[in-house]
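Thread: Acireductone dioxygenase, structure

OP (GT): Posting the sequence first so everyone is looking at the same thing. Length is 183 residues per the record. Can we get the structure tokens written out before standup tomorrow? I want them in the notebook alongside the other entries.
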Amino acid sequence: MAWLTVYPDNDPTVVELSSSDRMVVSGHLAMAGLLFERWNAEKAIDDTADTAAVLAAYAGPIAALKRARGFQSADVVRVPRGMPEAGALRAKFLAEHTHEEDEARFFVEGSGAFYLHVGDRVLRVVCERGDLLSVPAGTKHWFDMGPDPHFTAIRFFTRPDGWVAAFTGDVIADHFPRYDGPR
Ligand SMILES: [Fe+2]
């Protein structure tokens, strides 16, 4: 279950809210204009599963989400534990950026932390298995996969070409606590 921490955007030492209560997390994210839902993610995926195998295992929820949310396509991002290039991959998404389309992620394994810069708040959402989070187009955010990255997430797209990061140039991400891994 996702774990939400809310900070004022100008002071990362002040925690205004910290909760993993489902109603608190989904209610707070809804108020901020973010889609957050819990979906069943109980399918076992073995270490050798490729994109096709993950998509096949979750064909049911993927079809339901496409119908419910208008997603056009889905693919898989998988970071296995111990991946040699994990450090470089972690660094890639650690600076604040936006996209021209929604960034929708359904975590089916492992965890990672989204930091959403909404108004004058930073909302940190640690996503775990079963969490679906959609960051709306144009929302400033960054993502930390932690020091020992391990996750599998199904990515949904509403248009074929929108998922390119536009970096804001703001160094805000450097001032906030990093994600240090699962609790
Ligand atoms: Fe992003």
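GT: Both are above now. Quick notes for whoever picks this up: The radius of gyration is 16 Å. The longest strand covers residues 103-118.
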